[in-house]
């Protein structure tokens, strides 16, 4: 009896393995040998992580404080991101990109945020929003024209929000009127990331307000079509990342620059922001880890009461709590990314990852200041910057309430009897 019961699990495992071998790859149930821990990276993902880590530490780190103080992104960093192949991570090699995966993009965003969340969001918006819209919805001719520019030299911006349409993004009022073969755009966009340095803009405008959100259309244009920077915001955090108000005053865009067809802008924006949120989760995850790594080592070198402060139980338990929170944010983020990449449903998981990672980022970076005492409160260490930068995670690409609303909708659908 004893021997049999011991052998049964191994026997079942053997049977399952042979079942797996016999099963076609297309089955929706993953093969046993394809399951691995979420945070174990593939060789390619690990290579990207190492490349980005090196770039972040050698090129970005020495400039972080100056960029924050000056509220300006160093152009050499943007140039460096292009040179490292980090501005077309998922773009095909034929279009000048690195032809890697969504999860690789997420890892790059996380690694950059460990050092500077401003550089991270620049790379994030460019890759997960701008490049992805073109890769997914543009015609072949449009891809030929825009993807190589975006992968190798020109920064992109995603222009959806307006003064009166934030969470309610599809109440936007920018209009596009057809005149001959062109559309003439009039309106004002607000809060547009990267727009100070960018040359390529995705612009959401309504071609027929009588149709409501079904009139929203996505246009692509370069700055020289007449996009005017009306104001550059001065912000609490991510100060090196530009955030501007843009005026569109009779801006002419050829009809051939519509992406995805007339009236498809609503669908494009929703789908892109659903996956873009995993990018913000990755930014917040990296930020939390960055604050943790910067502050904890100090506590083992600083003595009070003749003892390193990090060894007091009150401090040690706080580190354990923070490390566990970071781990949960990581698993949620990686899971959402891997689900998206595997073609599985991911919208609920993405909302959970963004909501949770932004909470973790705020809490861990806030605690990190306290762990360092008075020193943490100065601008010298960079820990207070992580805390300032963390606030934005709960606001852009859908506020925390909007994420909770999304998660709650799934719960209601699943549990309504
Ligand atoms: C630094 C920065 C960069 C940005 N970058 C971009 C960009 O590149 N492109 C772009 O298009 N936009 C960008 N945005 C805009 C951003 O996406 C919006 O700020 C965000 O969606 C919130 O909109 P809002 O600021 O109008 O706030 P509001 O929508 O006015 O929300 C204010 C508060 O009301 C709550 N609220 C609103 N509706 C509900 C509801 N139904 N239920 C419960 N609570 C609700 C919100 O949760 C929030 O707490 C950026 C914003 C910032 C600050």
* Global structural class: alpha+beta
Ends: how far apart?
45 Å
The ordered string of helix (H) and strand (E) elements is HHHHHHHEEEEEEEEHEEHHHHH
Ligand catalogue:
flavin-adenine dinucleotide
What is Rg? Answer: 23 Å
How are the strands of the largest sheet arranged?
A: 1-4-5-8
Total DSSP E strands? 10
Give unreliable regions as ranges.
1-14
Which helices and strands occur, and which strands form pairs?
Layout: H1 2-22, H2 43-60, H3 64-70, H4 75-83, H5 102-115, H6 117-137, H7 140-152, E1 156-159, E2 175-179, E3 182-193, E4 200-206, E5 216-222, E6 228-232, E7 243-254, E8 258-259, H8 265-299, E9 303-304, E10 307-308, H9 313-341, H10 347-371, H11 374-377, H12 383-390, H13 400-415
Parallel strand pairs: 1-4
Antiparallel strand pairs: 2-3, 3-7, 4-5, 5-8, 6-7, 9-10
This protein binds flavin-adenine dinucleotide.
Subunit structure: Homotetramer.
Keywords: FAD, Fatty acid metabolism, Flavoprotein, Lipid metabolism, Oxidoreductase
Catalytic activity: 2-methylbutanoyl-CoA + oxidized [electron-transfer flavoprotein] + H(+) = (2E)-2-methylbut-2-enoyl-CoA + reduced [electron-transfer flavoprotein]
What does the model show?
The strands form three sheets. The chain has a four-stranded mixed beta sheet with strand order 1-4-5-8. A four-stranded antiparallel beta sheet has the order 2-3-7-6, covered by helices on one side. The model is unreliable at 1-14 (pLDDT under 50). The protein starts with a helix and ends with a helix. The chain is 53% helix and 14% strand. Strand 2 and strand 3 form a beta hairpin. It is of the alpha+beta class. Flavin-adenine dinucleotide binds at residues 125, 158-161, 166-167, 191-193, 235, 243, 392, 395-397, 399, 401-402, 405. Residues 125, 158-161, 166-167, 191-193, 235, 243, 392, 395-397, 399, 401-402, 405 line the site of flavin-adenine dinucleotide. Belongs to the acyl-CoA dehydrogenase family. Residues 157-251 form the Acyl-CoA oxidase/dehydrogenase middle domain. Pathway: Amino-acid degradation; L-isoleucine degradation; Lipid metabolism; mitochondrial fatty acid beta-oxidation. It is an enzyme of class 1 (oxidoreductase). Homotetramer.
């Amino acid at each position: 009896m004893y021997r049999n019961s011991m052998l049964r699990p191994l026997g079942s495992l053997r049977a399952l393995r042979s079942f797996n071998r016999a099963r076609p790859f297309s089955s929706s149930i993953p093969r046993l040998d394809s399951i691995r821990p979420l945070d174990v990276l593939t060789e390619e993902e690990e290579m990207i992580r190492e490349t980005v880590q090196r770039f972040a530490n050698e090129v970005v780190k020495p400039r972080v404080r100056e960029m924050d103080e000056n509220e300006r992104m160093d152009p050499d960093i943007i140039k460096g991101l292009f040179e490292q192949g980090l501005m077309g991570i998922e773009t095909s090699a034929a279009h000048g990109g690195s032809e890697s995966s969504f999860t690789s993009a997420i890892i790059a965003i996380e690694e950059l945020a460990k050092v500077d969340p401003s550089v991270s969001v620049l790379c994030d918006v460019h890759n997960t929003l701008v490049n992805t819209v073109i890769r997914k919805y543009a015609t072949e001719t449009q891809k030929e024209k825009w993807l190589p520019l975006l992968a190798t030299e020109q920064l992109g911006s995603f222009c959806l929000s307006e003064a009166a349409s934030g969470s309610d993004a599809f109440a936007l009022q920018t209009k596009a009127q057809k005149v001959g073969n062109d559309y003439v755009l009039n309106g004002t966009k607000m809060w547009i990331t990267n727009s100070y340095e960018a040359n390529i803009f995705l612009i959401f405008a309504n071609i027929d307000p009588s149709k409501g959100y079904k009139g929203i259309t996505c246009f692509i244009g370069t700055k020289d079509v007449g996009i005017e920077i009306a104001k550059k915001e001065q912000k609490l955090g991510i100060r090196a990342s530009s955030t501007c108000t843009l005026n569109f005053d009779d801006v002419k865009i050829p009809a051939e620059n519509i992406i995805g067809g007339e009236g498809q802008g609503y669908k494009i924006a929703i789908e892109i922001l659903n996956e873009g949120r995993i990018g913000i989760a990755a930014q917040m995850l990296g930020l939390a880890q960055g604050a943790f790594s910067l502050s904890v080592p100090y506590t083992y070198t600083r003595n009070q009461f003749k003892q390193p402060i990090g060894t007091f139980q009150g401090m040690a338990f706080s580190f354990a709590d923070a490390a566990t929170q970071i781990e949960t944010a990581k698993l949620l983020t990686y899971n959402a990314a891997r689900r998206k990449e595997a073609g599985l449903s991911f919208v609920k998981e993405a909302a959970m990852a963004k909501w949770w990672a932004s909470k973790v980022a705020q809490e861990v970076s806030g605690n990190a200041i306290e762990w360092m005492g008075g020193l943490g409160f100065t601008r010298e260490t960079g820990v207070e910057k992580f805390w300032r930068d963390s606030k934005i995670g709960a606001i852009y690409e859908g506020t925390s309430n909007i994420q909770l609303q999304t998660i709650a909708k799934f719960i209601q659908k699943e549990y309504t009897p």
